[in-house]
């Protein structure tokens, strides 16, 4: 009689990843982050300094191994929804192939174009439409200028767009985005997938002369107050303070008010974002897993694989 067969390397790897995910899930259920000190909240316009105060109270975020999330080679458990997260593709798909692994829900966290002109939007919509995922979630980012009419109009001269009817272009862009099959374009709005609540918002603290910029402090917080409490998956373009937001300049670009709303009130299972290419990766504060899914690196090369995670369905 033959003994049990040894597991293949791929099976062993899947089992290891599953055990690791379960371990971190257990840790997350046991503890959450300490409250943000009031002294830090008063410094929302100085994120790098504010983070030093928060870090002393909460400790460093847990950095999760990328092998848990890249490519989705591990077996999906029954009763879960598989999310595939990408961001900041910047029309690179027109020149270089981007491998997008299979899953139930494909999430794009914005900056799907370089400057949001009509041809770029058409190219993206054609590519995104061909991806086979049964549900798709899309938000805009700061580079997607034609998705934000005030920014598109004010940047006409900068990008030599004079002579165009910016309102007509913005109308056509809106039509194109809403015509992508199986896709929901979220703009401070939400949807539900298998009982899981998802919220999408394109805003970030002012970062150059681009779209969807808001002043730090109350300007940003007004948008984050719109996120329903206990949302399961939050999708924003910009990061929260301290998670995937460290720039090459060694300055923090994340939003303190977003971090505060997420930790204190919303408490999502996952937060997906992009914007800061060099912040690619996954961290945890003990309650929420933060996913910077930026596809492009600082050189606008698609060197960062999509990030994959499973969430237990609530249907």
Automatic annotation (TrEMBL):
Residues 82-278 form the Calcineurin-like phosphoesterase domain. Pfam families: Metallophos. It comes from the Eukaryota. CDD domains: MPP_239FB. GO terms for molecular function: hydrolase activity. It comes from Chrysotila carterae. The lineage of its organism: Eukaryota, Haptista, Haptophyta, Prymnesiophyceae, Isochrysidales. This is Calcineurin-like phosphoesterase domain-containing protein.
């Amino acid at each position: 009689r033959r003994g049990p067969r040894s597991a293949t390397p791929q099976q062993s790897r899947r089992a290891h990843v599953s055990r690791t995910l379960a371990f971190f899930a257990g840790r997350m259920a046991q503890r959450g982050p300490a409250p943000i000190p009031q002294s830090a909240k008063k410094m929302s316009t100085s994120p790098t300094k504010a983070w030093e105060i928060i870090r002393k109270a909460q400790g460093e975020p847990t950095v999760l191994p990328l092998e848990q999330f890249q490519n989705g080679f591990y077996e999906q458990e029954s009763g879960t929804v598989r999310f595939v997260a990408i961001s900041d593709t910047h029309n690179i798909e027109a020149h270089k192939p981007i491998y997008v692994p299979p899953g139930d829900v494909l999430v794009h966290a914005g900056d799907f174009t370089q400057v949001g002109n009509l041809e770029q939007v058409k190219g993206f919509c054609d590519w995104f439409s061909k991806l086979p995922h049964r549900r798709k979630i899309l938000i805009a980012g700061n580079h997607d200028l034609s998705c934000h009419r005030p920014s598109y109009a004010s940047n006409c001269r900068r990008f030599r767009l004079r002579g165009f009817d910016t309102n007509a272009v913005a109308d056509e862009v809106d039509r194109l985005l809403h015509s992508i099959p199986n896709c929901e374009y979220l703009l401070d709005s939400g949807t539900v997938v298998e009982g899981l609540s998802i919220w999408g918002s394109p805003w970030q603290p002012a970062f150059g002369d681009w779209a969807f910029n808001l002043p730090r402090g109350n300007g940003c917080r007004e948008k984050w107050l719109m996120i329903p409490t206990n949302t399961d998956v939050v999708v924003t373009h910009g990061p929260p303070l301290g998670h995937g937001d460290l720039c090459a300049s060694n300055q923090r670009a994340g939003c303190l008010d977003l971090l505060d709303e997420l930790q204190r009130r919303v408490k999502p299972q996952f937060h997906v974002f992009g914007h800061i290419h060099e912040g690619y990766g996954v961290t945890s504060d003990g309650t929420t897993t933060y996913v910077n899914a930026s596809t492009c690196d600082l050189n606008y090369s698609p060197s960062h694989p999509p990030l994959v995670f499973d969430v237990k369905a609530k249907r």
